[in-house]
Amino acid sequence: MASTLHKGITAESYPGQEHQEGPASRLGGTYEVKRGTAAGGEEERETPRQESRSFADVQRVVVEMTSGRPNRCPDNIPITIRLIDRLGLKPVLGRVRFVHIAGTKGKGTTAAYTAALLQAYGFKVGLFTSPHLVDIRERILVDNGFLSPDTFARYFFEFKKKMDALEFSNSQLDRDVASRANFFRFFFLLSLYIFEQESVEVAVMEVGIGGRIDATNTVPSEVSIITSLGYDHMDLLGNSLAEIAGEKAGILKQGVPCFAAPQADHPETRAVLEEVAKAQETPLIFLDKDVLPIHQWPALAIGGAHAVEDSKLAVMAARRIAGIPPIAPLDEVERHVLQSLTFAGRSQVVPVDGGRDMTLYLDGAHTPESLRRATEWFLEASAGEGKGPDAPPRRVLVLYTSRDPKLVLKAFMPYISHFCKVVIAQVQNPKQQVAGVGHHGAAPGVTADEEDDESRRSKQEVVAVTTLWRDMYREVTALPCGKPFLYLEDMLDLIVPAASDNENAALPAQVFVCGSFYLVGDVLKLVSQYEHGLRRDK
Question: According to the UniProt record, where is the region Disordered (predicted)?
Fold first, then answer.
């Protein structure tokens, strides 16, 4: 049967609009496809009543339930294993076949390609990724599509009932581990529950952070992938590339083949991966040029050379699951998947309607290497949009970064002459993003003091990044944002030239939004709201 995955943001996927049934998700494209048990063992205390079970309640409850719980701790793995056991999820691990993906750059894109290929091969496929851009359902897809809001809510509250049984159990150990179910761990475990209910055959699991002690490292993978490595989450994974590579290599398992990117950006990471693979007795295959001798790789809907590397890793892993020889020529189904698949927030082009001569180019790239790649994609994709050689378009950078700003800003050094200004943005409070409350309401579980602290911290970051930019690139104007964008017009006002700017307002504007999936998600919501008539009061 044919499965159409809608591109872009639809009315169903932004706050305030009615949700529609259908397979809209972060993935896009069209291609041909084929197609618990409650915790037990001890007396339980009375659990809270669960009255309201709508999708809107899911978004509220998940924040209230996980607020204040640490995101990462050294005992992640034993905690997650205990929860899998007590929540009755062990049978899922024995039935479902797993593909496990770690890396610094491109792991979400690789996961999307892998899932789409497996679906095209005839498997029923689950996909677990993070973060989401607009809708929390993006994190858990079945056959590359959203579950309906009602179905998602039903599974969520069924699973929450199991978690409540642990939190109110007479067993101190059960109560302790249940209280450690932070947001990411909860959604990972929920994905296992949903995949079991939906009879998923193969699940593609993207690591959250690192790999070695990530909650996803409890799945018995049949094949793993390590994408391109680089500096990432240095506060958690280590300050050196060797330390970071070691954490990512933590997903390697005895006898389980791993396909790895060539690591051209940082060749020294290969030695780390090889050392861990040898110790774990893991077959490790670097995807060097001679490993997959397929000529004339299809043109991809996702732009940039890095997407080609990601798609090749996906082909190798998906073929391993399907039992297809790795060096066989691409068939028409595979080519169609690779050519048609899109991924919201990666190499995404969004024209702005409403009489504005403006195009948004969106990419969630946030590490120095991925930002360089994304900027090259932007410059290539936006070429030729001007009004002749004497009237090139105005290129504006809209950037958010909260970590290692000096490394991030250095990534733009080779391309700085292409931009006329940069807007240093803020993002919506992540708790509001999870809750889906939009920009116009307070997030549940967030106190006024927390909001004030978050606002102060965010403003301080913007001031620091703006100051650093002005020190590094004095020739390009930097404009700081005092608060997150509430309406699309708030961003457009900073992009449109002021009377004092040395810019020609008659020229089309090409706006490159990058640095964070949170920022990209914010902008996509604002575009959707703008197109549906939610405008700033004049």
Answer: 1-56, 436-459
Short-list 179, 166, 170, CA closest to 86: 166
Domain containing residue 507: 348-531
**Residue 144 domain-assigned?**
yes
H or E stretch including 205? strand 202-206
Alpha-helical segments (H) within 168-260: 172-178, 183-197, 234-237, 241-248
pLDDT tens across 525-538, in order? Answer: 999 998 888 888 75
Which residue shows structure tokens 């700003």? 405
**Which phi and psi (to 5°) does residue 300 adopt?**
-100, 150
> Mind listing the pLDDT tens digit for each residue in 278-314?
999 999 999 998 888 777 899 999 988 889 999 999 9
Instruction: Please indicate, yes or no, whether residues 106 and 81 belong to a single structural domain of this protein.
Output: yes
Same domain, 75 and 172: yes
| Same domain (yes/no): 361, 475 | yes
Distance CA 436, CA 495 (A): 27
Dig out the tokens for 213 from the structure: 């002690």
pTM: 0.85
Contacts of 81 (CB under 8 A, 6+ apart): 218
Residues 6+ positions from 124 with CB-CB distance below 8 Å: 35, 142, 143, 198, 199, 200, 201, 202
- Do 327 and 461 lie in a common domain? no
Q: Where are the beta strands (DSSP E) in 352-433?
A: 358-362, 394-399, 421-424
Instruction: Look at residues 324, 343, 362 and tell me which one is the last residue of a structural domain.
Output: 343
| Whether residue 382 is found in the same domain as residue 434 | yes
Query: In angstroms, rounded to a whole number, what is the distance separating the alpha carbons of residues 160 and 49?
Result: 11
